[in-house]
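This part of the workshop introduces the protein records we will be handling. A record pairs a protein's sequence with a compact description of its fold. Backbone structure tokens are a discrete shorthand for how the chain folds in space. The question running through the whole workshop is how a given chain folds. The record below serves as our worked example for the rest of this section.
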Amino acid sequence: MPFITPSDVAFSSSVKTVQTRRGSRGRFQPMEEDGGWRTKITPDLAEFIGAQISVMLATASADGQPYIQHRGGPPGFLRVLDDSTLAFADFRGNRQFITLGNLAENPKAYLFLIDYAHRRRIKLWGTARVVEDDPELLASLAPKDYKAIPEQAIVFKLTAWDSNCAQHIPQRFEAADVSAALAVRDRRIAALEEEVARLTLAKIMPA
């Protein structure tokens, strides 16, 4: 069934009823009247997506049983193909194939991206399909120098997306970023210690 406004992908009749009962419906009606959530990938969103190293992919079986699976890789593993399409190489895993089975009978999918360091999260609704017979696509999606075996590609077609506020997102940093920052600090400390030693020696043994 086509949506009246893009946010209807999440705001079903039941959801709107609860919003009305709980007093928040008035917050969302102006947004809907103004066109609702965005349906295209903006340059800012593309930049955010390209920096991520982790994504949660939600699917459901034909009878609605939900399943969430984590996918990760180096920055850029989640690729923007155009202003409404994302894709990534699906690597060999535990061989349960729940996501693949779900998508074979129910294409509806959802991506959840969260950046703990900057306390930002993005929600994307759409449909997804598994591509097993396109070696060229798979090769283009496989991250360089990444030790994992890509088996198929998952292509996600965007229906709508929205961002959440930073409230309740704990601020966390990647270990590699912390290590890099500490290395810079340690080099600065070493340089200052050398300078102190030089000045101390110059004071003891003036020229």
